[in-house]
From TrEMBL:
Any single biological process term in GO: double-strand break repair via nonhomologous end joining
Pfam families cross-referenced by the UniProt entry: DNA_pol_B_palm, DNA_pol_B_thumb, DNA_pol_lambd_f
InterPro entries: DNA-dir_DNA_pol_X, DNA_pol-X_BS, DNA_pol_B_palm_palm, DNA_pol_lambd_fingers_domain, DNA_Pol_thumb_sf, DNA_pol_X, DNA_pol_X_beta-like, NT_sf
EC annotation from Swiss-Prot or TrEMBL: 2.7.7.7
Cofactor or coenzyme needed: Mg(2+)
GO annotation, cellular component aspect: nucleus
Compartment(s) of residence: Nucleus
Organism: Mytilus galloprovincialis
Protein name in the entry: DNA polymerase mu
Enzyme superclass (EC): transferase
Keyword Magnesium: yes
UniProt keyword terms in alphabetical order: DNA synthesis, Magnesium, Metal-binding, Nucleotidyltransferase, Nucleus, Transferase
Organism phylogeny: Eukaryota, Metazoa, Spiralia, Lophotrochozoa, Mollusca
Amino acid sequence: MFTGVFGVGPSTAKKWIERGWTSIKDAQESTDISKDWRVQWGLAFHDDLMNPVKSNEAYRFTEIIQTEAKKILPGIVVQLTGGFRRGKHQGHDIDILFTHPNGEETGFLPKLLTRLEKLNMVLCGSHESSSFHEKVLSEDFKLTARGQLDHFEKWLGICKLPKDSVSGDDAQIPLSNELEKCTEIKENIDSLDDYEPKAKKQRKCNGDNSPFTIATSERDWIARRVDFIMSPYSQYYYALVGWTGSKQFNRDLRLYSQKVLNRKLTSHGFYDFTTGKTLPANSETEVFENLNLQYQHPKNRNC
Ligand code: UTP
Ligand code: MN
């Protein structure tokens, strides 16, 4: 239950249990809680985040991101992944994968985040640089600090989505007016590479802008967990399979790859232990071909 709170991992959960807390409310009401800014936001917006994201919300949000992304970097590929790509009608977050066929993606995510903050769509989040290096393709994840986590540049955070995008087919595309208002900042976009998340300034979580104050104020939006992942184009189709999931489908593909083919499949590529080489893929179909498996539509990966 506690690790279901944004920002709470197994060690924080253990501490909370040791304190005798038995409900989220205990953590929310305690004045002696972790000072980690993620946890503060996670607790403040726990109710919002427990309310499942609906597919129409995820599609609309992706549309907005696509529009903004293309203004910043023409040619950028914006792909909704996770459960929604597998045709699920609801999920716990919105996972969006990016790539650029000409390799022009450096610096894109910070620019996108700066833009979304200007549009008042961001509550908090953290940006991680890529930690990819060639060894990632072949190393034994049990021996590494990151374990099975991938090494892509990413942003994990919480965004604001208008409540009217949650229900009904006739809802307006959210934030359209604000998007129009913001066209005047377009010319400055190339200088927006100094991204410093607003959340960092709010880490102390006090004063009028504390997460709890924001959460309990009257508002016409709902907080949603969002993941943005940036993949180099050469790894993109492996990243797409990995981020489409499901988790169990990935586990089975990877186990089969290791045991039967003596190859290592990750979201970064497909490594052959015998030749010491990786096999490229120029489509999702090619990922399955490389695995000697029949192509499976995302809808068939819900296992
Ligand atoms: P999610 O945890 O979002 O799963 O990760 P989901 O299937 O979309 O479930 P809901 O509907 O949001 O609850 C999406 C996919 O991305 C992979 C997971 O294994 C899953 O297949 N993933 C997640 C990674 O490859 N790396 C990560 O760091 C996180
Ligand atoms: Mn998801």
